[in-house]
Automatic annotation (TrEMBL):
The keyword Transcription regulation does not apply. The keyword Signal applies. The lineage of its organism: Bacteria, Bacillati, Actinomycetota, Actinomycetes, Mycobacteriales. Residues 1-21 form the signal peptide. This is ABC transporter substrate-binding protein. Residues 118-266 form the SsuA/THI5-like domain. InterPro entries: SsuA/THI5. Keywords: Signal.
Length: 450
């Protein structure tokens, strides 16, 4: 009987993602991390961080110096809401989530001194807001969000994707019936016809479009408003175990450095952990996708302040002192330990998209970049002529700069140039402003490029 109990306990520990330790629990410190493996721009505090073992390595260094042992428990969730619930119950110590969920986290936990949280780092952000999008069924006749007026749209209420939907609809005169659903449930609802649109955060829009299960209707970059994901920690835990928070931030910086140096390899690792196609992961963590930068930039903090009214519009949310909710001191200390100037890093990043294109051939462990979208089409056609299979081709929306799949883009021919747009609405705006230009199918663009 004792042997059976031990076997079950071992199986449970392995299923929970715990690192086993022979030291009794009273002699070790638990580190419980809530993350979202399928939310690509939290990878440096989640899937990539876990897979590379950076946190365990940093904690092992502390053990070697102090003798204190640590046990890390990784808990994977689909959205930020359940992470917040577990932090409120003091069962998760460190979590990563999007901008709206972080604010909800701060509001929900602020009344409990032991559960009260603070933002200590950013994982990834997009300066224009392209991390959140609205998709519709492939055969939908909708071209703009206003075409969905009166329709049912799936969104995770309180999520970054829901926030983008609210902002995009504000002032348009259109309204939709929002169904509060988890992302995977919303994807099924879209396919079954239960809803006519789905508004979500990465990587769901790219995944559904890549799989041919949806087309992009609205790019959050149209708002030209920053979206971000970041790291929150329970203050009580951070005060009790500052060395753990320090180790976590150092590990996150390790993961960020790795991703920025080897984005294709990082996408392979994250894909293996999350179950997402590597082509979809690389859409977001390749050049010009998510900006992976840990610093708490003033523009991002200002965006959080301006998000509060929208949060209050969807529920009973109290006030939150955003400046008091953000603490950059631990991250500054982590930078100083690495002898890196935090203020220089704070002022950098968030530049414009590359503007050309990137080709990834099947069987290759590297990609080829080209100067513009016309040359990308030439490279794709040349690969086909050689008999090479194109695994993925990425372009940048002509109007908004958003990185997107070439074969899922809407193409416009303007003279000898071929220009990609990630939505039909964007292409139509260009066509209206440029007489003589014409919309073409992707295969037509490939055949016509010279």
């Amino acid at each position: 009987m004792k042997r059976t109990v031990l076997t079950l306990a071992l199986a449970a520990a392995l299923a929970a993602g715990c690192s086993l330790d022979s030291t009794p629990s009273d002699d070790s410190v638990d580190v419980v991390v809530g993350y979202q493996s399928k939310t690509i721009n939290t990878a440096t505090a989640g899937a990539l961080l876990r897979a590379r073992g950076y946190l365990e390595s940093r904690l092992a260094d502390i053990t070697a110096r102090s003798g204190i042992r640590y046990r890390v428990d990784w808990q994977d969730y689909d959205t930020g809401a359940p992470i917040t619930a577990q932090m409120l119950a003091e069962k998760i110590d460190i979590g990563s989530m999007g901008d709206y969920p972080m604010l909800v986290n701060g509001v929900r936990t602020q009344a409990n001194p032991q559960a009260k949280t603070e933002i200590v780092a950013v994982t990834g952000y997009h300066p224009r807001g392209a991390l959140n999008m609205v998709v519709v069924p492939p055969d939908s006749h909708a071209d703009t969000l206003t075409d969905l007026s009166g329709a049912k749209v799936s969104a995770s209420v309180g999520s970054a994707g829901h926030g983008t939907l609210l902002r995009a609809l504000a002032g348009s005169g259109a309204s939709v019936d929002v169904l509060n659903q988890q992302p995977q449930v919303g994807a099924s609802s879209l396919e079954s016809g239960q809803v006519q649109g789905l508004s979500q955060f990465v990587a769901w829009p790219g995944l559904l479009v890549y799989q041919g299960r949806a087309k992009l209707l609205y790019d959050g970059a149209e708002l030209n408003y920053p979206t971000l994901h970041g790291v929150v920690v329970r203050r009580g835990y951070a005060r009790a175990h500052p060395e753990v928070l320090g180790a976590f931030l150092q590990a996150q910086l390790d993961a960020t450095d790795f991703l920025n140096r080897k984005p294709l390899e990082a996408s392979r690792i994250v894909a293996a952990d999350s179950g997402l196609p590597q082509e979809v992961v690389y859409l977001y963590n390749g050049p010009g996708g998510t900006s992976f930068d840990t610093t708490l930039k003033p523009s991002l903090i200002e965006a959080l302040r301006n998000d509060l009214p929208y949060l209050k519009s969807i529920g009973d949310f109290g006030d939150l002192d955003v400046d008091g909710f953000v603490d950059d001191a631990p991250l500054r200390a982590a930078f100083a330990e690495r002898k890196v100037d935090y203020d220089s890093a704070l002022a950098s990043g968030g530049g414009s998209a590359p503007g050309g294109g990137e080709l990834w051939l099947d069987g290759s462990d590297s990609t080829v970049t080209v100067a513009d979208s016309t040359r990308l089409l030439q490279a794709v056609r040349a690969a086909g002529d050689r008999g090479d299979h194109v695994r993925a081709a990425y372009v940048y929306d002509t109007e908004l700069g958003t990185r997107w799949f070439a074969d899922k883009s809407v193409w416009v021919r303007d003279g000898f140039r071929y220009l990609p747009f990630d939505t039909s609405a964007g292409a139509k705006r260009y066509l209206a402003a440029h007489p003589g230009s014409a919309a073409v199918e992707y295969q037509q663009a490939l055949a016509g490029v010279v």
